[in-house]
Amino acid sequence: MEAILVSSCLLGNPVRYDGAGKRCGHALLQGWIAEGRVVPFCPEVAGGLPTPRPPAEIRHGLGGAHVLAGRSAVVESGGKDVSAEFIDGARQALAMAQRKHIRVAILKEGSPSCGSTLIYDGSFSGQTLAGDGVTAALLRQAGIAVFSEAQLPEAAAYIAQLEASPQAHR
Ligand code: SF4
What we know:
The chain has 6 helices and 8 strands; from the N terminus they run E-H-E-H-E-H-E-H-E-E-E-H-E-H. The protein is an alpha/beta fold. The chain has a 4-stranded parallel β-sheet with strand order 2-1-5-8, with helices on both faces. Strand 1, helix 1 (27-34) and strand 2 (38-41) form a beta-alpha-beta unit. Helix 4 (83-99) crosses helix 5 (134-141). The chain is globular and about 45 Å long. It starts with a strand and ends in a 6-residue tail after the last helix. It binds iron/sulfur cluster. InterPro entries: 2-thiour_desulf. It comes from Pseudoduganella ginsengisoli.
């Protein structure tokens, strides 16, 4: 049975920057939880950031790969550079995934850590751009498939494919 790394906030845990959770009640996710295959993780908390914390965005809306490569930075609304904490949290997420042989992640859309198709543009004005966050980018670089909470049917199809031919994607 494939284990799935899931953003902790999607399970309702109050780990978001605003001190709240963002529970996803979708039947697919609830089914995976009931099957015991969900591994919750919050990279920002793991990276040492407090909850609540100021909102953060990636400078110029560049994707997480640019932060990992030192070409951009994650900055809080007050201007503090928190790239080191974001990168540390991403590395911990990857280490956890690799320890548990996880090949699929469901991450919260829009986050500078977990966003997988959309992130904010770095201006703190609510504008989004296509791109991914730091953890999503690092997991992808390691070959882990990343889906958002809006792509659960696609994730389920991918998991079914992995389970139908367990060696195919190793
Ligand atoms: Fe949720 Fe990811 Fe943000 Fe943690 S870092 S609160 S898991 S979106």
